Amino acid sequence: MVAKRIIPCLDVKDGRTVKGVNFVGLRDVGDAVELGEMYARQGADELVYLDISATVEGRGTFVNLVRRISERINIPFTVGGGISSLDDAARLLDAGADKISINSAAVRQPLLIDQIAGKYGSQFVVLAIDAKSVGDRWLITTHGGRQLTEKELFAWAVEGQERGAGEILLTSMDHDGTKAGYPCELFARLSEKLSIPIIASGGAGSAEDIAAVLSDGRADAALAASIFHFGEMTVGQLKSQLRDMNINVRL
Fold first, then answer.
1. Tell me, what's the pLDDT at 251?
2. Could you tell me if 33 and 40 are in contact, meaning their C-beta atoms sit under 8 angstroms apart?
3. In this structure, are strands 47-51 and 77-80 parallel, antiparallel, or unpaired?
4. Active site residue 14
5. By three-state DSSP, how is residue 10 classified?
6. How confident is the model at residue 62 (pLDDT cuts 50, 70, 90)?
7. CB contact burial 62-77 (16+ within 10 A = b; e otherwise)
8. Residue 202 to residue 223: CA distance in whole angstroms
9. Rounded to an integer, what distance in angstroms lies between the CA atom of residue 186 and that of residue 175?
10. Are 168 and 158 in contact (CB under 8 A)?
């Protein structure tokens, strides 16, 4: 059985790691490279860095940050935020990123998934989806959760897989940063429709929450931020607790 992955997520603004609730109310939690190094030492399987201030001025700063990360961190890492062209992806991969994550630009221009996967391979492409519950539907949001679309979650995830995405990173906007648990039923439904790995994001508040989404939710990996950034537990402590709950993780 393939081990489940634990992936700390670092939202980056101007080179610093920040964290909020439902994507707002951001707090500074430390240097992005130093935190990544710490999580790698603690046993993280991978890291995700998201440039949440991906402006024209900030793009060069982020590329330089990615280069620093690749020089100092020895585990795979994914970068995303503001990637809207094949050239954007190329710069970040050339700077040392192992994978790139695309979100809003892929919604606007789905062919971007095909282009990046066609040039670099599906294993380099993570399709990030920020979804919000609206009535009895889950709809896609863009621009850091600020704009609601009419695009439906399950259809978009299947399309992303067909276009060449190698993984789906699904964040529940309703649960992000709340530490109230993941919507496990949502992830389980998604897993029935996809053959590629699903990374669960949005709502981790305890080892029990993460165990639930990896078992009941059938996710292949769990992304978490708040519980690590604010010192509630280390990656190693989390993995030990997951092992005690019969979740297969690498220690």
1. 87
2. no
3. parallel
4. no
5. strand
6. confident
7. bbebbeebeeebebeb
8. 8
9. 12
10. no
- The dihedrals phi and psi of 207, each to the nearest 5 degrees, come to -60, -35
Amino acid at 151: K
Catalytic residue among 45, 88, 130, 220, which? 130
Q: Which residues contact 132 (CB under 8 A, 6 or more apart)?
A: 138, 139, 141, 145, 148, 172, 173, 174
Task: State the Cα–Cα distance between residues 120 and 90, nearest whole angstrom.
Answer: 9
pTM beyond 0.85: yes
Tokens of residue 54, six digits: 């991906």
CA 28 to chain centre: 19
Q: Which residue has the higher pLDDT, 156 or 18?
A: 156
216 among known catalytic residues: no
Angle (CA) 173-19-238 rounded to 5° is 85
Give pLDDT tens digits for 208-219.
999 999 999 999
Burial 90-112 (b: 16+ CB within 10 A, else e): ebbbebbbebbbbbbbbbeebeb
